[in-house]
Design a protein that fits this description.
Elements: H1 4-16, H2 19-48, H3 55-66, H4 73-86, E1 94-98, E2 115-119, H5 124-129, E3 140-144, E4 163-168, H6 177-187, E5 191-201, H7 207-214, H8 223-232, E6 236-242, E7 248-253
Parallel strand pairs: 1-2, 1-4, 2-3, 4-5
Antiparallel strand pairs: 5-7, 6-7
Length: 271
């Protein structure tokens, strides 16, 4: 055990340590850790990413998911609650869903004036349309994209500044960071000033997402990289969050004030 004299000596030494020196030590170690993090990210991204999925792959993946006994109701309600925030002005504008697949969330956009859907599988149109009643069919506009570009060459047929919300779930998790950047640049034209984008992305700083990326199912991405991509392409980051592991999402906004919706970041309380 330390004596009183030894304790006093230790206190004197600690008191002599300047706060600036301590902060320099902290900053130096943070810089080292961030450099290590960047190196690990770069290595993972290089070793994992490959965009080799075909329309047939996406079709089989959707069919496999359809065989699951039930939809994750917790996740569905969380996403649904977010969508409802944007629906208040839906009658004035159109919505675009990228990669609706079998239409898990598609019906949630029925309060918008027109519903645009963009997907790589033409056969999915029939499945998505069946989720709407016959009277709503005329308000649905379906666009097919090609294997290589995922709509980059086709989005010119969607009217400029026609949507106040672009939504995508279970699609951008398969895209490389470069592919996401291309997409964000392209869809900016479709949004009205102040329009929002709400999409799921992979955050491989979490074990579940990283495991899916390592086995080639998802592409490599993370929260920091996603934030930089959003800002680089001219959007304002509104929320980067997580519903649960494997369900990370980003909400961001095109500059401007035409959109009457003001999205509020808040906790969602479920019964």
């Amino acid at each position: 055990m330390l004596s009183i004299e030894e304790i006093k000596l230790l206190i004197e030494k600690l008191e002599k340590v300047k706060k600036e020196d301590l902060q320099k030590l902290i900053d130096s170690n943070l810089k080292i850790l961030k450099n290590i993090e960047m190196a690990v990210d770069a290595n993972n991204q290089e070793s994992i990413n490959r965009y080799d999925k075909t329309p047939e792959w996406f079709k089989k993946d959707a069919e496999h998911k359809q065989k699951r006994p039930e939809v994750d109701q917790y996740l569905f309600r969380m996403v649904q609650t977010k969508i409802f925030q944007f629906a208040r002005a839906g009658a004035q504008y159109n919505s675009l869903e990228i990669g609706p697949g079998l239409g898990t969330f598609s019906k949630e956009f029925r309060s918008w004036r027109l519903n645009y859907f963009l997907d790589i599988i033409p056969e999915f149109e029939r499945t998505v349309r069946r989720r709407f009643n016959p009277g709503h069919q005329r308000y649905i506009k379906w666009f097919n994209t090609d294997e290589k570009n995922w709509g980059v060459d086709n989005r010119h047929i969607i009217p400029t500044q026609s949507c106040n919300l672009i939504f995508s779930w279970d699609t951008f998790v398969f895209f490389t960071q470069k592919h996401i950047e291309n997409y964000l640049n392209q869809i900016e034209r479709i949004l009205i000033p102040g329009g929002y984008v709400f999409l799921q992305y992979a955050d491989c700083h979490y074990d579940l997402d990283l495991e899916r990326a390592k086995r080639g199912y998802w592409a490599y991405n993370n929260k920091n990289a996603m934030k930089k991509l959003i800002q680089k392409t001219g959007y304002e980051v509104i929320e980067l969050n997580q519903f649960r592991p494997g369900a990370n999402y980003a909400i961001f906004q095109k500059p401007g004030k035409q959109n009457p919706i003001v999205y509020k970041v808040s906790e969602i309380k479920l019964d």
